[in-house]
Specification:
Strand order of the largest sheet of chain A: 1-2-3
Radius of gyration of chain A: 22 Å
Strand content of chain B: under 5%
Low-confidence stretches of chain A: 1-8
Shape of chain A: globular
Mean pLDDT of chain A: 85
Shape of chain B: globular
Largest interface: A-B, 31 and 30 residues
Structural class of chain B: mainly alpha
Largest sheet of chain B: 2 strands, antiparallel
Helix content of chain B: 55-70%
Oligomer: heterodimer
Chain lengths: 423, 334
Amino acid sequence: MAGHESHPTAPPKPRATPEEMRERKRLSRQRVSDDSEFITVSMGPQHPSTHGVYQAVVDLDGEIVVNTRPSIGNLHRGVEKLAEVKSYHRFLPLTDRLDYISSFAMNHAYAEAVEKLMDIEVPRRARYIRTIGDELCRLSNHLLWLGVHVMDFGAQTFFLICFRDREYVLDLWEMLCGARLTHSYARIGGVAADLPDGWVEKCRAAMEFMPRRLAEYQRLVEKNRIFLKRTQGIGIFTQEDCVAWRVTGPSLRATGMERDLRKTEPYAAYDEVDFDVAVEYDADVYSRYLVRMKEMYESCKIILQCLDQLPEGDYINQDAASQTFPRKKRVMRDSAAMVQDFMQTFRGPKVPKGEVYKAIEVPKGEMGVYIVSDGTSIPQRLHLVTPTFYHCQATPALFEGEMISDVVGIFGSVDIVLGDSDR
Amino acid sequence: MTEFIILIIKLILIIAVSVGMVPFLIYFERKFAGFFQSRMGPTYAGPWGSLQSFGDMAKLMSKEDLVPAAADGPVFRIAPYILFVPAFVSMTLIPFGPMDVDIFGYNVDLVVSSFDAGVILFLALGSLAVYGPVFGGWASNNNWALLGALRSGAQMVSYEISMGLAVVGVIVMANTLNFVDIVDAQAGGFWNWFFIPQLVGFVIFFVASIAELNRDPFNLAEAEQELVAGYMTEYSGMRWGIFMFGEYVNMVVMSAVISTIFMGGWRAPFEFLDVIPGFIWLVGKMLFFIFLYMWIRWTLPRYRYNQLMDIGWKIFLPLAIANLAVTALIISVV
C-alpha cells in the first residue's frame, strides 16, 4: 500500500524466555525496605491526567509506588441493567457509550453477538463496511491514545498534532453516519446505511495520506531521547502477568503473544484481507507504543484493501424479516417493509432461546458480549466483557515498584477509557 | 540627595520593567504555544488577544482568597513572595548600559548597584528562591504539594552547583565577580563574548537555568501529569497568580543574567552598532533566551525525577568541573 514501505520495521528481536522477562521485570521495579514510612496520595478521580474518573489510592515510599488500591465505578450508568428492559435494537445506541472513543467497534461487538444468537447472515458488503468502520475506529482510537500518551510524559504539543489528524477520520465518520463520536452505525444484520456518494474516494485519499503522517510522528517520537528514556524498560508486564490479569489487545501483543481475534477467530471481512498482527517482545511501555504504531499502518492497509474489494449488495440483511430492519428506502414504498419496520421498532426482534458469547478485537483489547436469551425480544441477561475493566484491575500489579512519575504513563500505555470499564 | 533620588528612580524602573514584561511574556508564551500547536492562542481580549493577561489578572484578583483550614497560614501566605523578592534583587545587579552616562546633566551609572561580589550574590539569591516552593508545599499540608516541594528543593539545589561552577569559568576569564566588569571584559564585538570560549559552561548554565526555573523538560515540581500541580496544588486566586508571576519574573532575571554573563550584556555585537542604546540590546538578548525557554517547553517531554538527578550530578557537575579546570589551565599558561 502507498507509503507503507516507508514504515521502518526493525527486525524482530529474539524472544526472551519467561525467566528472562521475569528477571528483567524484577530489575526494572524498585523495592523498598521494610522500615519505610509511606505517604498516601489519591490519584484521581480529580487528578488532571488519570484518563477519566479512575481513582487509585497510592501508597508511596518517597517516589516509589508500594501499594495501589484501584477504584472504579465513578462513571457507572447501569448499562447492563438497562439492557434487560430494552429490546435488542434499542440497546445498540447504548453500546456507543461504553468505549466512546471507538464507539462503532462497540456497536459491532454487540451486533456480532446478537447475530450469532439469532444465527443470521450478514451481507458481504455490510461485513466489508463493518471492517472499514472497525479499522477507522482503531485509527482514531490509537491517534488519540498516542497524543495522550506522549502528553503523559510532558510533551504538550504532540497531543494537538495527533488531534489534528484524527479529524480526518472523524470527518469520514461524520460523512458516513452524521456523528463524530457516538456513531450507532451498526445494526443487527448489517449497518444503518450504505456508504454515501464520494465517501470511498474521500476515505481512500485519507488512508493514502495517513501513513505519511504516521511516519512523521514516528520520527518525532522515536528520535526523542527523553521519550525513549521515559518509556523503554518501564512498566514491564510479562506475558504471564497479562494472562493472569486478562490484559488483552496491544498490551498483550507487546509481550510477544500473537493473539489477535481478527486473525485467530476472523469475523466481518478480516479473513478476506491481508494484514499482519503487530507483535513486539519487550513488554514495556515502548513496545506497547510500537505495537499501536504498527497497527495504525495495518489499519490503513486493511481499509484500502476493503475499499478495493468492496462488493456490491445489500448493506443490511433483508431475508430475516422478523429480526432485522428493512432498508429505509423500502419502508416508504412497501407496506410489508413498513410493518416490518414498525414491528422491529416497537416489539423488537424474534430471538431464539439460548445463550451466546462472542468476542471481537476492539482497539483497546478483546471485547466480549455474553447474552442469555429467554426467547423474548429483551435479553434476560447481557454481560459486557470490556477490556478496560480488566486493564484497571491489573493496575496494582502494573504500578508496584514503579515511580510515581511513570504511573500515569504506564496506566495510559495499556489504554483506558473509563466509560468502558464502568459501564 | 540627588544620588538617592536617581537610585530610587532606577529601582522603580527596574521593577517596572521586569514586572511590566511579565503580562506580555505570558501572552507571548500562550501565543507561541498556539502557533506550535497549529492553533491561534488568545484572540479575543484586545487586538490579537494582547490584553489576555490583564483579563486573567483581573479574574485572579477577584477570586476568593482561600487558605486551606489545615494549612500553616502565615507560611502559606508568605511563600509566593519568597519566590518573587530575590528575583528583583538579582535584577539590580544587571547593568543596562555604560557607566557615567550624561542624562539631563546628571552623571548616571546605568546599573542599580555595581556590586563587587555580584555573581556570588546572584547565586545566593537564586538559592533563596528555593524557599518559595518549599514553604508553599510544606505549608499546604497536602501530600501532592509536599512531593512537589521536595522535588523542587532537591532539583534546585543540585542544579545550583553545576550552574555556579559553569559561571566560575567566566569569572576566571574576566577576573572579576562584578557584572559590570564582566560586561566590560566582553567589549569589542561578539567574538569577544564569553559564550564562544566558554561554550560548555554556557550550555551547562542554560540547561541548569531551565531546571532552576522549573520549566519543561525539568518542570518536575509542578508536573501536572504526575503531581497535580506540585507545590501550587492548594493555591488559588491571586496567590497562585503571584507564584506564576514569580516564575516569569525569574525567567526575565535568568535571561538577563545569561545575556550578561555569556552574551555581552548590553553591548552590541559589532561596535558600529553602538548607536543603538545598550538597553535595547540587552532586552533583545533577553527576549531571545525567553523564546528559547518557551520553544523548549512546548517541544520536549519531561524527564523523570531520577533521570534529572542523574543529569545534574553525573553529567553536568563533572563537565562543569572539567570545564573549569581546562579554563584555569589555559588562563594560567597563556
